[in-house]
Amino acid sequence: MSHRQTGRRVALLIGTVIALAACGGGASPGSATSPSASSEPGASDAPSSAPLAGEITIDGSSTVYPISAAVAEEFQIENPGVKVTVAFSGTGGGFKKLCASGADATDANDASRPIKTEDKPGADGQLGTTDDELSEATICRNVGVDPVELKVAYDGLSVVVNPANTWVDCLTTAELKTIWDQGSTVTTWADVRAGWPDQTIELFGPGADSGTFDYFTEVINGEAKRSRSDYTPSEDDNALVQGVANDDNGLGYFGFAYYEENQDKLRLVPIDGGGGCISPSIEAIKDGSYAPLSRPLFVYSSRQALARPEVAAFFTYYLDNVNLFVDEVGYVELPADEIAASRTALEAALQ
What we know:
It is a single chain. Helix content is 38%, strand content 18%. It has helices at 3-22, 65-78, 91-98, 136-142, 173-180, 189-192, 211-221, 237-245, 256-260, 282-287, 303-306, 309-329, 336-350, and strands at 54-60, 82-86, 108-111, 147-161, 171-172, 202-206, 232-234, 250-255, 267-268, 271-272, 277-278, 294-302. Helix 2 links the parallel strand 1 and strand 2 (82-86). Helix 12 runs antiparallel to helix 13 (336-350). The model is unreliable at 1-47 (pLDDT under 50).
């Protein structure tokens, strides 16, 4: 299946998600089953003594969503007794659900950043006890959830403008900080660089629950979540695409795969991180030259969920085949040693 075909499939799944959400059903792109071990290179060849059955719920990053949705769709074809629901509420929102109590907990979280592990001090200087002060890892531990980190791909954040914008040929990371930093007074293109037009910039970016937001603000502004607030946020990257595409002075950022699927509506902005202006591409993300806006992508399950045979089978299949799906949806494959490290982490959790 070509990348374009998969892009259309993912777009259809996202359309289904939106329709279901409008009906109060939430974002759930439907079922998926696993191709047989013998039919796909790299597929799991573990024998199955009985048909798998059950439900698997995944939430989290809209960036990782296309990978998990594609894996889920194929997994269900081979395992029709398993229903895999994939939604996207942002990386932070997904961790809240993974680390929820009882029946409210999901089985896995798609994440475009690692889980947060450092608790914040309270007003008295001591480590706090509220959810705002506790790290995601601590909140999980407090409810008996043991997250298992599985790295699955690499991605590069894309900075984009409307095709009508003919003057922005490159942005330095310092200029991005000037635009996006907390307390920024930039309102027009002329405020960014002399000679650019005195036209108001309309900003579009991920919401505060997004791992993309955390990553971008950390590497550009120096601290995760440090950002101006007067922009149009969304946890849905497709909404950000439409925002920039429909505004001649739009500027936004999101994952590279969403640019690739919408490049007829957007113009990519090369970024100068100190070594010259470089546009994100599969090659530049893979070789690390697109810095600092390249990052790893993850899926987190829990030891508790992985004790169920359908969840264990799903994530075994996920890692055995992830590079096939990563190529299809436009991200960058993990090297063999990093896939092996994820397999080792999964195998340890299954023991």
